């Protein structure tokens, strides 16, 4: 069975382990520097197995050595954003830890596919890829996948249908400037704009744009973690089982979509080696303009924090 190492046993790390366990996708090792945290959470997940009917191997380790020889490593450590904290400020808080952890990943799991869920997702994904020196296709962020699942839920909730009937694709930076590919938003194959009034669709899109901030403001001491963990588990499953699913993931672009040198979410075919290829999507003129503007905005943020 493939091995997944999760660095960070907080809400996102532990729930990612739980969802992977339920999917029976791979064995999981949770790692955290806080003594006993990962061991205790691993035990808790294991004890839920008889009721939830899984027997996945879940282990907790107090040392980073626990990720040795992992096929997939999930970066889930670092600080979460405080209310009213900017993404630039959060990057400065989390970047030093990510630099250190990437050195450990290079040493212990040099062949792994790395999934990043640490915020700000796109900026940290790019930092991780540069620091690791891995092929860019092996370092992925969950931004677009997370926004897409939120979109699907909100549309299904509005229409009162199963979320499994709803498809959609959100690309670009994982921030309010994200881009919604309108032609992909469908319910059982029916274009969503034929089922929802324009004002409802606009309200849903606006809610997705600010979803992370909404949860942060409501919870105060906690950011979203169930949906990000579900996105991690879905990406792990696509990698471990080599499904070749097309998923929107943050990846360093080198000319695709007319963007160079930054990580943003685009559709990619996911398999055992990570992103096997970036899928080119013909966007409308408006979507293309929005995408490039959002990419430029992200570049400006990167310049502010790296100069």
Q: How would you name the CATH homologous superfamily of the largest domain?
A: Lactate dehydrogenase/glycoside hydrolase, family 4, C-terminal
Number of helices: 9
CATH architecture identity of the largest domain: Alpha-Beta Complex
> Which class best fits the helix and strand makeup?
alpha/beta
- Would you tell me the overall average pLDDT? 94
CATH topology of the largest domain: L-2-Hydroxyisocaproate Dehydrogenase, Chain A, domain 2
Structural domain count: 2
Distance between the termini: 44 Å
Strand content: 15-25%
CATH class of the largest domain: Alpha Beta
Topology order in helix (H) and strand (E) letters:
EHEHEEHEHEHEEEEEHHHEEEH
Main-sheet strand order equals 3-2-1-4-5-6
Principal-axis shape equals globular
Spans of at least 5 consecutive residues with low confidence? none
Oligomer: single chain
Give Rg in angstroms: 19 Å
Major sheet size, sense and barrel closure: 6 strands, parallel
Number of strands: 14
What report would you give on this structure?
The structure is a single chain. The chain has 307 residues and is α/β, with parallel strands linked by helices. It has two domains: 141 residues, NAD(P)-binding Rossmann-like Domain (Rossmann fold), CATH 3.40.50; 163 residues, L-2-Hydroxyisocaproate Dehydrogenase, Chain A, domain 2, CATH 3.90.110.10. It contains nine helices and 14 strands. The strands form four sheets. The chain has a six-stranded parallel beta sheet, sandwiched between helices. A three-stranded antiparallel beta sheet has the order 7-10-11, with helices on one face. β4, α3 and β5 form a beta-alpha-beta unit. α3 crosses α9. The mean pLDDT is 94.
């Amino acid at each position: 069975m493939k091995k997944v190492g999760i660095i960070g046993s907080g809400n996102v790390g532990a729930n990612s382990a739980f969802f992977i366990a339920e999917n029976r996708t791979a064995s999981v090792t949770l790692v955290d520097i806080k003594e006993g945290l990962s061991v205790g959470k691993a035990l808790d997940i294991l004890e839920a197995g008889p009721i939830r009917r899984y027997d996945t191997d879940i282990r907790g380790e107090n040392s980073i050595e626990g990720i040795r020889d992992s096929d997939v490593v999930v970066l889930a450590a670092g600080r979460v954003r405080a209310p009213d904290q900017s993404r630039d400020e959060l990057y400065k808080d989390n970047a030093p830890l990510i630099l250190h952890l990437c050195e450990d990943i290079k040493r212990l799991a040099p062949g792994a596919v790395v999934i990043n869920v640490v915020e700000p997702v796109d900026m940290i994904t790019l930092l991780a890829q540069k620091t690791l020196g891995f092929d860019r296709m092996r370092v992925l962020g969950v931004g677009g996948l997370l926004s897409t699942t939120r979109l699907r839920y909100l549309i299904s909730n509005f229409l009162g249908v199963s979320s499994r009937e709803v498809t959609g694709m959100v690309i670009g930076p994982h921030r309010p400037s994200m881009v919604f590919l309108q032609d992909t938003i469908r319910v059982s194959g029916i274009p969503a704009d034929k089922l929802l009034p324009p004002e409802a669709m606009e309200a849903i899109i606006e809610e997705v744009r600010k979803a992370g901030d909404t949860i942060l403001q409501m919870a105060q001491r906690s950011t979203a973690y169930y949906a990000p963990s579900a996105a991690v588990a879905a990406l792990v499953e696509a990698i471990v089982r080599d499904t070749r699913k097309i998923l929107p993931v943050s990846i360093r672009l080198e000319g695709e979509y007319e963007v160079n040198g930054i990580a943003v979410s685009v559709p990619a075919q996911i398999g055992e080696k990570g992103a096997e290829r970036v899928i080119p999507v013909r966007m409308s003129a408006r979507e293309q303009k929005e995408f490039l503007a959002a990419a430029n905005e992200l570049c400006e943020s990167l310049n502010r924090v790296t100069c």
